[in-house]
Specification:
Helix content is 18%, strand content 62%. The chain has a 4-stranded antiparallel sheet, with no helix packed on it.
Length: 76
Amino acid sequence: MVEYKTLKSEHMGFGKNNFIEIARKKVIADNGESEFISLSRGFITNNGEKRYKQSVTIPSSKEMVDFIKKKLDEMV
């Protein structure tokens, strides 16, 4: 069995009902556990519920996060 836990998440809305969410998550499996960062895009339904459309996971190593931050800053 595999279990996922969200440790922390933040989101920012854009457009009419869209959002981007970044979250630190933990996966717990029979052979151990590890943490990762997810970057997801979604929308808010008419009932106010979040629905996710796309997601990418990123290793939570400092080197990987620093690389992504640097490259995003260069693209803005």
